[in-house]
UniProtKB/TrEMBL annotation:
Its cofactor is Zn(2+). It is an enzyme of class 3 (hydrolase). Pfam families: Peptidase_M3 (PF01432). Keywords: Hydrolase, Metal-binding, Metalloprotease, Protease, Zinc. GO terms for molecular function: hydrolase activity. This is M3 family oligoendopeptidase. It comes from Deinococcus antarcticus. It comes from the Bacteria. Its EC number is 3.4.-.-. Belongs to the peptidase M3 family. Binds 1 zinc ion. InterPro entries: Pept_M3A_M3B, Pept_M3A_M3B_dom. Residues 174-561 form the Peptidase M3A/M3B catalytic domain.
Length: 575
Protein backbone atom coordinates (compact mmCIF):
# COMPACT_ATOMS: atom_id res chain seq x y z
CA UNK A 1 0.00 0.00 0.00
CA UNK A 2 1.43 3.38 -0.96
CA UNK A 3 1.79 5.80 1.96
CA UNK A 4 -0.59 8.70 1.72
CA UNK A 5 -1.68 11.57 3.88
CA UNK A 6 -4.35 10.97 6.50
CA UNK A 7 -7.54 12.54 5.18
CA UNK A 8 -9.95 14.17 7.59
CA UNK A 9 -12.40 11.39 6.75
CA UNK A 10 -9.83 8.78 7.83
CA UNK A 11 -9.13 10.72 11.02
CA UNK A 12 -12.84 10.89 11.85
CA UNK A 13 -13.14 7.14 11.25
CA UNK A 14 -10.18 6.49 13.53
CA UNK A 15 -11.74 8.58 16.30
CA UNK A 16 -15.16 6.95 16.05
CA UNK A 17 -16.37 5.55 19.37
CA UNK A 18 -19.48 3.30 19.39
CA UNK A 19 -22.30 4.54 21.57
CA UNK A 20 -21.94 1.53 23.85
CA UNK A 21 -18.37 2.53 24.68
CA UNK A 22 -19.72 5.69 26.32
CA UNK A 23 -21.90 3.67 28.72
CA UNK A 24 -20.50 2.50 32.04
CA UNK A 25 -22.63 -0.63 31.85
CA UNK A 26 -20.48 -1.73 28.90
CA UNK A 27 -17.59 -2.12 31.33
CA UNK A 28 -19.17 -2.60 34.76
CA UNK A 29 -19.95 -6.36 34.62
CA UNK A 30 -16.41 -7.22 33.55
CA UNK A 31 -14.87 -5.06 36.27
CA UNK A 32 -17.24 -6.62 38.80
CA UNK A 33 -16.19 -10.07 37.67
CA UNK A 34 -12.57 -9.17 38.37
CA UNK A 35 -13.55 -7.87 41.78
CA UNK A 36 -15.57 -10.99 42.61
CA UNK A 37 -12.94 -13.46 41.42
CA UNK A 38 -11.15 -15.47 44.06
CA UNK A 39 -7.55 -14.35 43.77
CA UNK A 40 -4.42 -16.19 44.83
CA UNK A 41 -0.78 -15.23 44.40
CA UNK A 42 -0.43 -17.72 41.56
CA UNK A 43 -3.46 -16.30 39.78
CA UNK A 44 -2.40 -12.65 39.92
CA UNK A 45 -0.55 -12.47 36.54
CA UNK A 46 -3.54 -13.71 34.52
CA UNK A 47 -5.93 -11.55 36.56
CA UNK A 48 -3.73 -8.49 35.93
CA UNK A 49 -3.72 -9.21 32.21
CA UNK A 50 -7.54 -9.18 32.12
CA UNK A 51 -7.69 -5.99 34.19
CA UNK A 52 -5.10 -4.34 31.94
CA UNK A 53 -7.05 -5.20 28.78
CA UNK A 54 -10.24 -3.76 30.25
CA UNK A 55 -8.50 -0.58 31.42
CA UNK A 56 -7.00 -0.21 27.95
CA UNK A 57 -10.43 -0.47 26.35
CA UNK A 58 -11.92 2.20 28.60
CA UNK A 59 -8.84 4.42 28.29
CA UNK A 60 -8.99 4.24 24.52
CA UNK A 61 -12.62 5.38 24.49
CA UNK A 62 -11.69 8.30 26.73
CA UNK A 63 -8.71 9.24 24.55
CA UNK A 64 -10.69 9.16 21.33
CA UNK A 65 -13.60 11.16 22.75
CA UNK A 66 -11.19 13.73 24.17
CA UNK A 67 -9.27 14.07 20.92
CA UNK A 68 -12.47 14.30 18.90
CA UNK A 69 -13.62 17.10 21.20
CA UNK A 70 -10.31 18.91 20.61
CA UNK A 71 -10.85 18.71 16.85
CA UNK A 72 -14.36 20.17 17.21
CA UNK A 73 -14.33 22.74 20.00
CA UNK A 74 -17.21 24.49 18.23
CA UNK A 75 -19.51 21.43 18.11
CA UNK A 76 -21.77 21.28 21.17
CA UNK A 77 -22.87 17.70 20.56
CA UNK A 78 -19.31 16.39 20.38
CA UNK A 79 -18.34 18.40 23.45
CA UNK A 80 -21.33 17.08 25.37
CA UNK A 81 -20.58 13.47 24.51
CA UNK A 82 -17.09 13.79 25.94
CA UNK A 83 -18.34 15.58 29.03
CA UNK A 84 -20.98 12.90 29.58
CA UNK A 85 -18.25 10.24 29.46
CA UNK A 86 -16.19 12.22 31.97
CA UNK A 87 -19.17 12.57 34.30
CA UNK A 88 -20.75 9.12 33.98
CA UNK A 89 -17.94 6.68 33.16
CA UNK A 90 -14.77 8.05 34.76
CA UNK A 91 -16.06 8.27 38.37
CA UNK A 92 -17.29 4.65 38.66
CA UNK A 93 -14.16 3.44 36.87
CA UNK A 94 -11.99 5.25 39.42
CA UNK A 95 -13.94 3.77 42.30
CA UNK A 96 -13.63 0.32 40.77
CA UNK A 97 -9.91 0.87 40.18
CA UNK A 98 -9.47 1.61 43.88
CA UNK A 99 -11.34 -1.54 44.86
CA UNK A 100 -9.32 -3.70 42.48
CA UNK A 101 -6.09 -2.16 43.74
CA UNK A 102 -7.06 -2.89 47.34
CA UNK A 103 -7.90 -6.47 46.31
CA UNK A 104 -4.47 -6.87 44.71
CA UNK A 105 -2.64 -5.38 47.68
CA UNK A 106 -4.43 -7.78 50.02
CA UNK A 107 -3.42 -10.99 48.20
CA UNK A 108 -1.45 -13.08 50.74
CA UNK A 109 1.99 -14.26 49.74
CA UNK A 110 2.09 -12.28 46.51
CA UNK A 111 5.44 -10.91 45.37
CA UNK A 112 5.34 -8.87 42.16
CA UNK A 113 7.51 -9.96 39.26
CA UNK A 114 10.47 -7.67 38.44
CA UNK A 115 8.60 -6.03 35.56
CA UNK A 116 5.66 -5.24 37.87
CA UNK A 117 7.51 -4.23 41.04
CA UNK A 118 7.56 -0.51 40.26
CA UNK A 119 3.93 -0.47 39.11
CA UNK A 120 2.89 -2.40 42.25
CA UNK A 121 4.55 0.28 44.41
CA UNK A 122 2.77 2.99 42.41
CA UNK A 123 -0.54 1.18 42.88
CA UNK A 124 0.06 1.09 46.64
CA UNK A 125 0.93 4.80 46.77
CA UNK A 126 -2.02 5.79 44.59
CA UNK A 127 -4.38 3.77 46.76
CA UNK A 128 -3.13 5.64 49.81
CA UNK A 129 -3.79 8.97 48.06
CA UNK A 130 -7.29 8.00 46.91
CA UNK A 131 -10.25 9.75 48.46
CA UNK A 132 -13.89 9.16 47.56
CA UNK A 133 -14.57 12.89 47.77
CA UNK A 134 -12.06 13.49 44.98
CA UNK A 135 -13.90 11.27 42.51
CA UNK A 136 -16.76 13.68 41.85
CA UNK A 137 -14.47 16.65 42.42
CA UNK A 138 -12.28 15.22 39.67
CA UNK A 139 -15.23 15.48 37.27
CA UNK A 140 -15.55 19.16 38.18
CA UNK A 141 -11.83 19.55 37.58
CA UNK A 142 -12.09 18.05 34.10
CA UNK A 143 -15.08 20.24 33.28
CA UNK A 144 -13.16 23.34 34.32
CA UNK A 145 -10.20 22.34 32.15
CA UNK A 146 -12.56 21.75 29.24
CA UNK A 147 -13.82 25.33 29.58
CA UNK A 148 -10.26 26.42 28.85
CA UNK A 149 -10.11 24.17 25.77
CA UNK A 150 -13.36 25.54 24.38
CA UNK A 151 -12.44 29.17 25.04
CA UNK A 152 -9.01 28.90 23.42
CA UNK A 153 -10.09 26.50 20.68
CA UNK A 154 -12.65 29.01 19.41
CA UNK A 155 -10.34 31.99 19.73
CA UNK A 156 -9.90 34.09 16.58
CA UNK A 157 -7.53 36.89 15.63
CA UNK A 158 -8.56 39.82 13.45
CA UNK A 159 -5.63 41.21 11.49
CA UNK A 160 -5.98 43.74 8.67
CA UNK A 161 -9.65 42.84 8.35
CA UNK A 162 -8.88 39.11 8.04
CA UNK A 163 -9.98 36.51 10.58
CA UNK A 164 -7.20 34.06 11.43
CA UNK A 165 -6.71 31.11 13.74
CA UNK A 166 -4.14 31.55 16.50
CA UNK A 167 -1.47 29.45 14.68
CA UNK A 168 -2.00 31.42 11.47
CA UNK A 169 -1.59 34.71 13.30
CA UNK A 170 1.50 33.48 15.14
CA UNK A 171 3.12 32.70 11.82
CA UNK A 172 3.23 36.44 11.11
CA UNK A 173 5.57 36.85 14.09
CA UNK A 174 8.28 35.22 11.98
CA UNK A 175 8.10 37.85 9.26
CA UNK A 176 11.39 39.77 8.72
CA UNK A 177 9.36 42.99 8.34
CA UNK A 178 9.18 44.47 11.83
CA UNK A 179 5.96 46.35 11.08
CA UNK A 180 4.26 43.07 10.08
CA UNK A 181 5.46 41.40 13.28
CA UNK A 182 4.29 44.30 15.43
CA UNK A 183 0.85 44.31 13.83
CA UNK A 184 0.52 40.54 14.32
CA UNK A 185 1.68 40.73 17.93
CA UNK A 186 -0.78 43.49 18.74
CA UNK A 187 -3.62 41.60 17.07
CA UNK A 188 -2.74 38.47 19.06
CA UNK A 189 -2.50 40.51 22.24
CA UNK A 190 -5.93 42.03 21.58
CA UNK A 191 -7.40 38.56 21.05
CA UNK A 192 -5.75 37.24 24.20
CA UNK A 193 -6.87 40.19 26.30
CA UNK A 194 -10.44 39.79 25.05
CA UNK A 195 -10.60 36.23 26.39
CA UNK A 196 -8.42 36.91 29.46
CA UNK A 197 -11.28 37.73 31.88
CA UNK A 198 -12.98 34.43 31.11
CA UNK A 199 -9.70 32.56 31.54
CA UNK A 200 -9.12 34.40 34.81
CA UNK A 201 -12.44 33.02 36.06
CA UNK A 202 -11.53 29.50 34.96
CA UNK A 203 -8.19 29.77 36.76
CA UNK A 204 -9.76 30.89 40.03
CA UNK A 205 -12.12 27.94 39.84
CA UNK A 206 -9.22 25.58 39.14
CA UNK A 207 -7.20 26.92 42.06
CA UNK A 208 -10.13 26.38 44.40
CA UNK A 209 -10.72 22.87 43.09
CA UNK A 210 -7.06 21.91 43.21
CA UNK A 211 -6.70 23.12 46.77
CA UNK A 212 -9.77 21.10 47.71
CA UNK A 213 -8.34 17.99 46.03
CA UNK A 214 -5.22 18.39 48.17
CA UNK A 215 -7.18 19.05 51.35
CA UNK A 216 -9.38 16.02 50.83
CA UNK A 217 -6.23 13.90 50.57
CA UNK A 218 -4.79 15.41 53.78
CA UNK A 219 -1.98 17.15 51.93
CA UNK A 220 -0.76 20.56 53.03
CA UNK A 221 -1.05 22.07 49.56
CA UNK A 222 -1.70 21.16 45.95
CA UNK A 223 2.01 20.93 45.16
CA UNK A 224 2.43 18.18 47.74
CA UNK A 225 -0.67 16.42 46.40
CA UNK A 226 0.48 16.68 42.80
CA UNK A 227 3.98 15.51 43.74
CA UNK A 228 2.50 12.24 44.96
CA UNK A 229 -0.02 12.01 42.13
CA UNK A 230 2.82 12.35 39.59
CA UNK A 231 4.97 9.86 41.53
CA UNK A 232 7.89 12.24 41.83
CA UNK A 233 10.25 10.17 43.97
CA UNK A 234 13.63 10.96 42.41
CA UNK A 235 13.85 14.69 43.21
CA UNK A 236 12.35 17.31 45.50
CA UNK A 237 10.88 20.83 45.29
CA UNK A 238 14.23 22.06 46.63
CA UNK A 239 15.95 20.51 43.59
CA UNK A 240 13.53 22.43 41.37
CA UNK A 241 14.34 25.69 43.18
CA UNK A 242 18.04 25.03 42.63
CA UNK A 243 17.30 24.44 38.94
CA UNK A 244 15.51 27.79 38.70
CA UNK A 245 18.55 29.53 40.19
CA UNK A 246 20.99 27.66 37.94
CA UNK A 247 19.04 28.64 34.83
CA UNK A 248 18.90 32.24 36.01
CA UNK A 249 22.67 32.33 36.49
CA UNK A 250 23.99 29.96 33.80
CA UNK A 251 21.47 30.17 30.96
CA UNK A 252 19.74 33.56 31.04
CA UNK A 253 23.02 35.38 30.20
CA UNK A 254 23.53 33.09 27.18
CA UNK A 255 19.94 33.57 26.05
CA UNK A 256 20.36 37.32 26.43
CA UNK A 257 23.49 37.25 24.28
CA UNK A 258 21.79 35.19 21.57
CA UNK A 259 18.80 37.50 21.40
CA UNK A 260 20.84 40.69 21.54
CA UNK A 261 23.20 39.43 18.82
CA UNK A 262 20.20 38.76 16.59
CA UNK A 263 18.89 42.24 17.32
CA UNK A 264 22.27 43.76 16.53
CA UNK A 265 22.39 41.91 13.23
CA UNK A 266 18.99 43.34 12.36
CA UNK A 267 19.94 46.84 13.47
CA UNK A 268 17.36 46.92 16.25
CA UNK A 269 17.93 49.26 19.15
CA UNK A 270 16.22 46.85 21.53
CA UNK A 271 14.23 43.63 21.53
CA UNK A 272 10.52 44.31 21.64
CA UNK A 273 7.96 41.54 22.32
CA UNK A 274 7.27 41.19 18.58
CA UNK A 275 11.00 40.65 18.00
CA UNK A 276 11.20 37.61 20.26
CA UNK A 277 9.60 34.23 19.64
CA UNK A 278 11.40 31.57 21.66
CA UNK A 279 10.00 28.86 19.37
CA UNK A 280 11.38 30.45 16.23
CA UNK A 281 14.07 33.09 16.72
CA UNK A 282 14.44 35.73 14.03
CA UNK A 283 17.16 35.36 11.43
CA UNK A 284 20.01 37.81 12.22
CA UNK A 285 20.42 38.54 8.50
CA UNK A 286 16.77 39.47 8.11
CA UNK A 287 15.99 36.56 5.83
CA UNK A 288 12.49 35.15 5.49
CA UNK A 289 11.70 32.26 7.77
CA UNK A 290 12.28 28.89 6.21
CA UNK A 291 9.07 27.58 4.68
CA UNK A 292 9.91 24.06 3.48
CA UNK A 293 6.34 22.93 2.76
CA UNK A 294 2.83 24.22 2.09
CA UNK A 295 0.44 21.41 3.02
CA UNK A 296 0.19 18.77 5.69
CA UNK A 297 0.76 16.11 3.06
CA UNK A 298 4.02 17.74 1.97
CA UNK A 299 5.16 17.83 5.60
CA UNK A 300 4.37 14.13 5.99
CA UNK A 301 6.33 13.31 2.85
CA UNK A 302 9.44 15.22 3.84
CA UNK A 303 9.30 13.70 7.32
CA UNK A 304 9.01 10.20 5.87
CA UNK A 305 12.18 10.70 3.82
CA UNK A 306 14.00 11.84 6.95
CA UNK A 307 12.88 8.74 8.84
CA UNK A 308 13.88 6.54 5.92
CA UNK A 309 17.36 8.01 6.13
CA UNK A 310 17.52 7.56 9.89
CA UNK A 311 16.03 4.09 10.39
CA UNK A 312 13.82 1.73 8.37
CA UNK A 313 11.66 0.70 11.33
CA UNK A 314 10.96 4.30 12.33
CA UNK A 315 9.94 4.98 8.74
CA UNK A 316 7.60 1.98 8.79
CA UNK A 317 5.95 3.17 11.99
CA UNK A 318 5.39 6.63 10.54
CA UNK A 319 3.99 5.10 7.35
CA UNK A 320 1.52 3.14 9.46
CA UNK A 321 0.33 6.39 11.02
CA UNK A 322 -0.12 7.99 7.59
CA UNK A 323 -2.11 5.07 6.25
CA UNK A 324 -4.43 4.70 9.22
CA UNK A 325 -5.79 8.15 10.00
CA UNK A 326 -3.39 8.72 12.89
CA UNK A 327 -2.20 12.18 11.83
CA UNK A 328 -4.23 15.39 11.74
CA UNK A 329 -1.86 18.24 10.91
CA UNK A 330 -3.81 21.04 9.23
CA UNK A 331 -4.98 24.13 11.13
CA UNK A 332 -8.75 24.66 11.00
CA UNK A 333 -11.28 26.90 12.74
CA UNK A 334 -12.71 25.18 15.80
CA UNK A 335 -9.65 22.99 16.28
CA UNK A 336 -7.68 23.18 19.51
CA UNK A 337 -4.51 25.17 18.80
CA UNK A 338 -2.00 23.07 20.74
CA UNK A 339 0.02 20.12 19.39
CA UNK A 340 0.15 16.76 21.13
CA UNK A 341 0.40 12.99 20.76
CA UNK A 342 -2.51 10.88 21.99
CA UNK A 343 -2.45 7.10 22.48
CA UNK A 344 -4.97 4.35 21.74
CA UNK A 345 -3.78 1.31 23.73
CA UNK A 346 -5.93 -1.55 22.46
CA UNK A 347 -4.26 -1.45 19.05
CA UNK A 348 -1.05 0.17 20.34
CA UNK A 349 -1.52 3.17 18.06
CA UNK A 350 -0.51 6.78 18.69
CA UNK A 351 -2.30 9.79 17.20
CA UNK A 352 -0.67 13.16 16.45
CA UNK A 353 -2.61 16.42 16.37
CA UNK A 354 -0.97 19.62 15.07
CA UNK A 355 -1.82 22.96 13.47
CA UNK A 356 0.77 23.45 10.73
CA UNK A 357 1.24 26.64 8.75
CA UNK A 358 4.24 25.74 6.58
CA UNK A 359 7.24 26.74 8.70
CA UNK A 360 10.46 25.03 9.68
CA UNK A 361 9.13 25.16 13.25
CA UNK A 362 6.33 22.85 12.11
CA UNK A 363 9.00 20.41 10.91
CA UNK A 364 10.60 20.42 14.35
CA UNK A 365 7.26 20.01 16.13
CA UNK A 366 6.28 17.09 13.91
CA UNK A 367 9.52 15.29 14.70
CA UNK A 368 8.84 16.03 18.36
CA UNK A 369 5.29 14.69 18.41
CA UNK A 370 6.13 11.65 16.31
CA UNK A 371 8.98 10.96 18.74
CA UNK A 372 6.23 10.58 21.33
CA UNK A 373 4.45 8.27 18.91
CA UNK A 374 7.55 6.07 18.63
CA UNK A 375 7.57 5.87 22.43
CA UNK A 376 4.01 4.59 22.35
CA UNK A 377 4.78 2.04 19.65
CA UNK A 378 7.95 0.62 21.22
CA UNK A 379 6.76 0.56 24.83
CA UNK A 380 3.47 -0.97 23.69
CA UNK A 381 5.29 -3.68 21.77
CA UNK A 382 7.47 -4.58 24.75
CA UNK A 383 5.09 -4.07 27.68
CA UNK A 384 1.88 -6.17 27.69
CA UNK A 385 0.37 -4.43 30.72
CA UNK A 386 -1.12 -1.06 29.86
CA UNK A 387 0.22 0.56 33.05
CA UNK A 388 3.78 -0.35 32.03
CA UNK A 389 3.65 1.53 28.73
CA UNK A 390 5.09 4.97 28.04
CA UNK A 391 7.30 6.00 30.99
CA UNK A 392 7.52 8.23 34.05
CA UNK A 393 6.95 11.84 33.01
CA UNK A 394 10.57 12.77 33.77
CA UNK A 395 11.58 10.64 30.78
CA UNK A 396 8.57 10.97 28.50
CA UNK A 397 9.88 14.01 26.59
CA UNK A 398 13.24 12.41 25.76
CA UNK A 399 11.86 10.30 22.87
CA UNK A 400 10.33 13.45 21.37
CA UNK A 401 13.13 15.92 21.98
CA UNK A 402 15.86 13.48 21.00
CA UNK A 403 14.07 12.91 17.70
CA UNK A 404 14.38 16.65 16.99
CA UNK A 405 18.17 16.19 17.14
CA UNK A 406 18.54 12.72 15.62
CA UNK A 407 16.84 13.87 12.41
CA UNK A 408 19.20 16.84 11.94
CA UNK A 409 21.57 14.89 9.68
CA UNK A 410 18.74 13.56 7.48
CA UNK A 411 17.20 16.74 6.12
CA UNK A 412 19.26 17.27 2.99
CA UNK A 413 16.12 16.76 0.89
CA UNK A 414 14.34 19.50 2.84
CA UNK A 415 16.99 22.21 3.07
CA UNK A 416 20.07 23.15 1.11
CA UNK A 417 23.37 23.41 3.01
CA UNK A 418 22.82 27.03 4.02
CA UNK A 419 19.23 26.43 5.09
CA UNK A 420 20.19 23.32 7.04
CA UNK A 421 22.83 25.29 8.92
CA UNK A 422 20.16 27.85 9.80
CA UNK A 423 17.73 25.15 10.93
CA UNK A 424 20.39 23.41 12.99
CA UNK A 425 21.57 26.61 14.64
CA UNK A 426 18.02 27.58 15.49
CA UNK A 427 17.46 24.15 17.04
CA UNK A 428 20.51 24.54 19.30
CA UNK A 429 19.76 28.14 20.19
CA UNK A 430 16.19 27.06 20.86
CA UNK A 431 17.33 24.82 23.71
CA UNK A 432 19.11 27.72 25.36
CA UNK A 433 16.22 30.18 25.10
CA UNK A 434 13.70 27.51 26.13
CA UNK A 435 15.28 26.79 29.50
CA UNK A 436 14.48 30.22 31.03
CA UNK A 437 10.86 29.80 29.95
CA UNK A 438 10.72 26.33 31.52
CA UNK A 439 12.21 27.61 34.76
CA UNK A 440 9.73 30.49 34.83
CA UNK A 441 6.77 28.20 34.22
CA UNK A 442 7.87 25.84 36.98
CA UNK A 443 8.71 28.60 39.47
CA UNK A 444 5.30 30.19 38.92
CA UNK A 445 3.51 26.94 39.75
CA UNK A 446 5.59 26.30 42.88
CA UNK A 447 4.58 29.76 44.08
CA UNK A 448 0.94 29.38 43.07
CA UNK A 449 0.33 26.01 44.69
CA UNK A 450 2.64 26.07 47.72
CA UNK A 451 3.28 29.70 48.63
CA UNK A 452 0.47 31.94 47.37
CA UNK A 453 -1.95 33.26 50.02
CA UNK A 454 -5.24 31.51 50.67
CA UNK A 455 -7.14 34.46 49.21
CA UNK A 456 -4.91 34.73 46.14
CA UNK A 457 -6.28 37.00 43.43
CA UNK A 458 -5.75 37.34 39.72
CA UNK A 459 -3.82 40.53 40.47
CA UNK A 460 -1.45 38.39 42.58
CA UNK A 461 -0.97 35.95 39.71
CA UNK A 462 -0.30 38.77 37.29
CA UNK A 463 2.19 40.41 39.64
CA UNK A 464 4.10 37.17 40.26
CA UNK A 465 4.30 36.44 36.55
CA UNK A 466 5.69 39.93 35.91
CA UNK A 467 8.31 39.44 38.61
CA UNK A 468 9.42 36.13 37.14
CA UNK A 469 9.36 37.37 33.56
CA UNK A 470 11.67 40.24 34.45
CA UNK A 471 14.04 37.70 36.01
CA UNK A 472 14.05 35.10 33.24
CA UNK A 473 13.46 37.35 30.19
CA UNK A 474 15.22 40.61 31.04
CA UNK A 475 16.25 41.10 27.42
CA UNK A 476 12.73 41.90 26.16
CA UNK A 477 11.93 45.62 26.23
CA UNK A 478 8.34 46.40 27.27
CA UNK A 479 8.81 50.15 27.72
CA UNK A 480 5.68 52.08 26.78
CA UNK A 481 3.56 48.95 26.37
CA UNK A 482 0.63 47.82 28.47
CA UNK A 483 2.18 45.46 31.00
CA UNK A 484 -1.24 43.93 31.57
CA UNK A 485 -0.49 42.02 28.38
CA UNK A 486 2.84 40.82 29.75
CA UNK A 487 1.23 39.93 33.06
CA UNK A 488 -1.11 37.46 31.35
CA UNK A 489 1.74 35.27 30.13
CA UNK A 490 0.70 32.68 32.70
CA UNK A 491 -2.47 32.03 30.69
CA UNK A 492 -0.76 29.13 28.98
CA UNK A 493 -1.96 25.64 28.09
CA UNK A 494 -0.05 23.68 30.74
CA UNK A 495 -1.02 25.99 33.60
CA UNK A 496 -4.65 25.10 32.94
CA UNK A 497 -4.43 21.58 31.58
CA UNK A 498 -1.36 19.90 33.09
CA UNK A 499 -0.36 21.49 36.41
CA UNK A 500 3.28 20.94 37.35
CA UNK A 501 4.02 19.24 34.06
CA UNK A 502 6.69 21.50 32.62
CA UNK A 503 10.07 21.09 34.29
CA UNK A 504 10.14 17.70 32.57
CA UNK A 505 10.67 19.49 29.27
CA UNK A 506 13.83 21.04 30.66
CA UNK A 507 15.08 17.77 32.15
CA UNK A 508 14.49 15.98 28.89
CA UNK A 509 15.94 18.72 26.69
CA UNK A 510 19.15 18.51 28.69
CA UNK A 511 19.14 14.73 28.26
CA UNK A 512 18.31 14.99 24.55
CA UNK A 513 21.32 17.25 24.05
CA UNK A 514 23.43 14.63 25.82
CA UNK A 515 22.01 11.88 23.63
CA UNK A 516 22.73 13.93 20.51
CA UNK A 517 26.24 14.61 21.82
CA UNK A 518 26.76 10.84 22.02
CA UNK A 519 25.29 10.34 18.55
CA UNK A 520 27.93 12.62 17.07
CA UNK A 521 30.47 9.99 18.08
CA UNK A 522 28.47 6.83 17.38
CA UNK A 523 25.14 7.38 15.58
CA UNK A 524 24.16 3.69 15.39
CA UNK A 525 24.81 3.06 19.07
CA UNK A 526 22.91 6.19 20.10
CA UNK A 527 19.86 5.16 18.04
CA UNK A 528 19.96 1.63 19.46
CA UNK A 529 20.07 2.98 22.99
CA UNK A 530 17.22 5.34 22.16
CA UNK A 531 14.95 2.52 21.03
CA UNK A 532 16.02 0.18 23.84
CA UNK A 533 15.18 2.82 26.44
CA UNK A 534 11.75 3.36 24.87
CA UNK A 535 11.00 -0.36 25.15
CA UNK A 536 11.58 -0.28 28.92
CA UNK A 537 8.37 1.69 29.23
CA UNK A 538 7.00 2.58 32.64
CA UNK A 539 8.44 -0.47 34.39
CA UNK A 540 11.87 1.03 35.08
CA UNK A 541 12.85 3.85 37.47
CA UNK A 542 13.75 7.23 36.03
CA UNK A 543 17.52 7.15 36.64
CA UNK A 544 17.77 3.71 35.02
CA UNK A 545 15.81 4.89 31.97
CA UNK A 546 18.23 7.75 31.51
CA UNK A 547 21.20 5.41 31.83
CA UNK A 548 19.67 3.06 29.27
CA UNK A 549 19.49 5.98 26.85
CA UNK A 550 23.15 6.73 27.54
CA UNK A 551 22.71 9.88 29.63
CA UNK A 552 22.53 10.89 33.29
CA UNK A 553 19.44 11.99 35.19
CA UNK A 554 20.75 15.39 36.22
CA UNK A 555 19.57 18.99 36.08
CA UNK A 556 21.93 20.56 38.60
CA UNK A 557 24.07 23.65 38.05
CA UNK A 558 27.27 21.82 37.12
CA UNK A 559 25.47 19.65 34.57
CA UNK A 560 23.69 22.63 33.04
CA UNK A 561 26.96 24.56 32.84
CA UNK A 562 28.64 21.67 31.02
CA UNK A 563 25.86 21.27 28.47
CA UNK A 564 25.79 25.02 27.83
CA UNK A 565 29.53 24.84 27.13
CA UNK A 566 28.89 22.03 24.64
CA UNK A 567 26.16 24.02 22.89
CA UNK A 568 28.37 27.08 22.75
CA UNK A 569 31.01 24.97 21.07
CA UNK A 570 28.52 23.60 18.55
CA UNK A 571 27.38 27.15 17.80
CA UNK A 572 30.94 28.15 16.99
CA UNK A 573 31.93 29.53 20.36
CA UNK A 574 30.45 32.90 19.46
CA UNK A 575 28.43 33.31 22.65
Amino acid sequence: MTAKTSSLEAVEKQLHVPAAASDWQTYAPRYQALLDEELTAAGVPAWLARWSALDAELSEAASKLSTHADLHTDDDAIQQRFQTFVAEVIPPSQRMGQQLTEKLLAVPGYTPAPDFTLTYRRFRDAAALFREANVELGVTHEQQKNRHSVLTGNQKVTLNGEELTIPQARQRLDNPDRAVREAAWKALAASNMAVAPELDAVMLDLIKTRRQLAGNADEANYRDFRWKELDRVDYTPADCAAFHEAVRDEVVPLASRIVKDIAAGLGLDSVRPWDYNRNNLLDPQGRESLKPFKTGQELEELALKAYQGLDADLAARFTHMRENGLLDLESRPGKMTHAYCQYFPTQNEPFVLMNVVGTAEDVRVLFHEVGHAFHGFYSGDAQPLVWNRWSPIEFVEIPSMAMEFLTLDHLGHVFNAEELARYRRKQLEGVIVFLPWAAQMDAFQHWLYAQAPENVTIADLDAKWLELDRTFHPFVNWDGLDEKIRAKGWQYYHIFQAPFYYIEYAMCYLAAVGLWQASRENPAQALTRYKDALRLGNATPVPELYRAAGVDFRFDREHIRGLMAFLKGELGGTL
